């Protein structure tokens, strides 16, 4: 009636899988940023920019963790931290 369509809802398990994959990637990026921060302080790069990039990656990671906690997601986090170098 009146041409209003219902939105299709994403399957919760699919969303949970996307979220756990996102957490794994965010954790990897955060750890990589911390290592890069330590290495870049020895160069001529602006330390404020380096710290800002690390802070951004940290906030992304913790945002996703809060979302997972709110949804009561349990995952095999020990495998989430293993990430091959590309």
TrEMBL record:
Database matches in InterPro entries: DUF2508
Top-level taxonomic group: Bacteria
Pfam families, per the entry: DUF2508
Protein name: Protein of uncharacterized function (DUF2508)
């Amino acid at each position: 009636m009146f041409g209003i369509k219902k939105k299709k809802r994403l399957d919760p398990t699919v969303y949970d899988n996307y979220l756990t994959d996102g957490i794994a990637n965010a954790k990897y990026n955060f750890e990589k940023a911390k290592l890069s921060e330590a290495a870049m302080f020895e160069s001529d790069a602006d330390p404020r920019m380096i710290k800002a990039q690390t802070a951004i990656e940290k906030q992304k990671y913790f945002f996703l963790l809060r979302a997972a906690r709110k949804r009561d997601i349990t995952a095999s986090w020990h495998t989430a931290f293993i990430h091959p170098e590309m």
